[in-house]
Amino acid sequence: MKSVFYHLTGVSVNLHLLRSSFVTYCYGDSQCTDAMKDSLASALRHTRKQAQLTYDRRNSSEKKSLAVSLASELAENTIESLSAQLSDRNAGLDKGSWVALTVEGSTLANPNIMLARIQNLMPGRKASLLWFKATAEKGLYAFHYDEASWIESLDALVPVQVKEIKNSPGLYKLTTSLKKIHRAVLGNN
C-alpha cells in the first residue's frame, strides 16, 4: 500500500497517515452510522468523543446542515403521520354520517359540541351539514332548519354514534361521550 502511494504521489506515507486519512474520510462521510463510528473508535482505542474530536474534520455549518436535515425529515414524518391519522379518523364519512364539531370556548371540563349529519360531500374535503340542536333534555338533539348552508372541512368533523328515540320521532340521542369528541379535535385542552 505504501509503495502504491509512493508511485502515485512521489511521497512516502507512513501507516499512521494512512489510518488517519481513512478514519477522517469515514467520519466525514454522511453514510457512516453511529455504530460504524463506535467501531472505528474502539479499534483505535479511543473513546467515541476522542475519535470524534480528532478525526471529524467537518466545519460547523456542515454539522449543522445534517442536524437541520434530520429535524426537517422528522417534522415531515410527523406531519404525514398526523394527516394520516386525520384521514383515518374520517375515512368512513359519507352522505348521511353523523358527525360532531367542538364549539369555540369548549374545554375538557365543560365540552360544548354541535351535532350534524352530512348532507352532501363537496370537492376540497368539505361537507354540507344539517344541524341538530340540543334540546332541554340532556343528550337529546332535534333537527334545526336554518336557511344558510353550513359547510365545514372534513378534518374538523368527528364521527359519532347517534340513535333515534323510539317513541319520539325527530329526536336523536348522542351515544358518544362529549369528552371523547372534544379530545378527538382538541386533545386534552
From TrEMBL:
InterPro entries: Tyrosine_recombinase_XerCD (IPR050090). This is Uncharacterized protein. It comes from Nematostella vectensis (Starlet sea anemone).
